[in-house]
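Tutorial handout. Part one gives the primary structure; part two gives the three-dimensional structure as tokens.
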Amino acid sequence: MSDIDIEYAWAAVGGDPGLPSRVTAVAREGALPSRLPVRELARACVGACALAAAELGARRAGLAEVPGVRVDDGAVATAFVSERHLLIDGRAPVAFAPLSRFWRTADGWIRTHANYPHHRERLLTVLGPPETLEAVLAERSAAEVEEAVCAAGGLAFAVRRAEEWARHPQAAAVAGRPLVERERLDSAPARALPPAAAALPLDGVRVLDLTRVIAGPVATRTLALLGADVLRVDPPRHPELPDQHADTGFGKRSAVLGLDTDRRAFEELLARADVVVTGYRPGALDRFGLAPAALAERRPGVVVAQLSAWGAYGPWAGRRGFDSLVQAATGISVLEGAPDAPGALPAQALDHGTGYLLAAAVLRALSKRHDEGGSRVVRLALARTAHWLTTGTGTGADAPAGLPYEGPGPWLRERDGALGRLRYALPPVAYAGGPADWARPPGAYGTDPARWT
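Part two.
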């Protein structure tokens, strides 16, 4: 059993064990209330990310000491539900489509996800029109529906108890892996980041963002906060949901590019990229030459960050997934539910927590590349973060004294941009001398040129 604290998260990304003493946490009772240690997990992930940023910033600025880091539960709790706080000209986004929900089955419950049109189409191809779904599902077992929908490329997962999940082969595969997988791919020479006394930690670093939904975009949104030139690239056939883009597009540019039709443009981007972040199913992008080894061969010294729902191993390695579905499959929905119905965490904490850990792992990989060279790959999975949450112990050692959490107000801001008047959550990553907000609001989706600034 592992502790859920900053020390554990920092060790997972390969950090110096002496540095967590630089972190001061402000505990706020009532933030992210849950039966599971969600508040401690959120604090640990953000703390590790802020510490990695402070460490790299100190190195580039030539400081003798890493600046102090401050993790405030209020800022963290607000950021972990950033998609709920977002307002666009006063309008609140729609979080889940009507068919993304729990359904009763003949033997329990199932959770479906149909926010994206192509996932909705696949779900209905298997189960029939929306008006008959409730009756159809009530006559079939959850396991049967899960297998049929997933085989068709859709998204439906049986709601399992924790003990049921523990017996599943995918649970065993997930539990056998570290929270953050880290690997050196080759012996590429060290690529030192130039000194930058007044710059942000990632000033001059180019990040190619091939992620979607929440976890991956939260990671790259954080890298943008820290000064990286982040270019998000989406396929023309499956655009991102507009509200999702608005929440996670801060600090980034957004382009549309077909990997199968615009290879030359993509290779030109890769030739100057420092980091490539992917958030698709394991292996889904390999045919485009985006496997880590293939990327490192063409761009020696690159840092590749891979994110998936279930991990690149076990019987579910090729399955799609989202936070809500991982909660359902791994026992979290039962733990957080009522006696007669499943429930959910107070935030999509697997997404947000994994996103900040991914950003921390990228920052640490850049530090290692700076010192030792080598192309590097880091891998995280929502299911592995869920394993940490459900089997770890929240010690409370990070912040023993608690203040009341009185709402998100101090950590919300408004600004105008291409999408209109935005109300949004401020970034929770904070350290002495670090940025307090993103340099730019999100622009219009897919309207930036596919080239580096």
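Part three, for discussion. The mean pLDDT is 94. The chain is about 35% helix and 15% strand.
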